[in-house]
Write a structure and sequence with these properties.
Elements (H helix, E strand, L loop, with lengths): L9 H19 L6 H18 L4 H19 L3 H24 L16 H24 L5 H19 L5 H22 L4 H28 L1
Helix pairs in contact: 1-2, 1-8, 2-3, 2-8, 3-4, 4-5, 4-6, 5-6, 6-7, 7-8
């Protein structure tokens, strides 16, 4: 539970502050600032940069982000997003917090130890991913969720990303990056009906670049820890 910013490099400071600035500006220029959306984006960006450092504070902030994003999704009737983040991502973030605290890196105690995936992990992810997708898709269909296809894909990518985070795999960031792309499409469709959601699109574009940096950062640390 160390200070997550004490080891930031100049590049990471630039990425974090630049991302926060773009998020604030995009929300202000929308003409109608939505406080939950703005706060969720700021928390989300901060969580991602902490995650790139392998710091457990990332998972604590993800719990906060899940609650805020669930509220935003509920207002547009994106039941899949609401159920995914409140019913899946949030509890898995709590679980990840516990596993990250229990597995600090031997080279740097403020970072989580990165784990190599084995065949059992991959098989478990594949089977559980199918089960979760089918169950959630049924509820989305019953609730007549808008843009059902992309909402369903979002569930799959969110689950895989959250599970890989819990497993302490470098590929967690690839899962979240894939989810970011799906959400960019999903909220673009929402923005066609209500332009107020354009800042949400910008937020997930920023998330995508932060997740890709997270993957690069974890792969570098994985080589050091290995």
């Amino acid at each position: 539970m160390s200070n997550p910013v004490k080891d930031f490099t100049k590049k990471e400071w630039s990425l974090w502050l630049g991302s926060l600035l773009i998020v604030v500006v995009s929300n202000l220029f929308s003409g109608d600032v939505d406080l939950p959306t703005l706060v969720a984006a700021l928390v989300g960006v901060t969580s991602l940069i902490f995650a790139a450092k392998g710091n457990v504070w990332a998972q604590i902030l993800m719990v906060v982000f899940s609650i805020l994003y669930g509220i935003i999704s509920w207002r547009f009737r994106y039941w899949g997003e609401m159920m995914t983040y409140l019913g899946m991502t949030l509890p898995m973030a709590v679980w990840s917090t516990i596993t990250w605290l229990k597995n600090p890196s031997e080279t740097n105690g403020s970072e989580v130890a990165i784990q190599q995936l084995n065949r059992c992990h991959v098989f478990g992810l594949f089977v559980s991913g199918i089960i979760v997708t089918v169950i959630f898709c049924y509820f989305l269909w019953v609730l007549k969720t808008p843009n059902l296809l992309f909402s369903t894909i979002s569930i799959t990518t969110s689950f895989v990303a959250a599970a890989l985070t819990m497993l302490r795999s470098s590929y967690y960031a690839v899962g979240y990056a894939a989810n970011d792309l799906v959400l960019i499409v999903l909220w673009s469709l929402a923005a066609m009906e209500n332009p107020a959601y354009i800042p949400v699109i910008v937020n997930f574009v920023i998330f995508f670049f932060n997740d890709m940096y997270g993957f690069i950062s974890w792969r570098r640390r994985e080589a050091v820890q290995g």
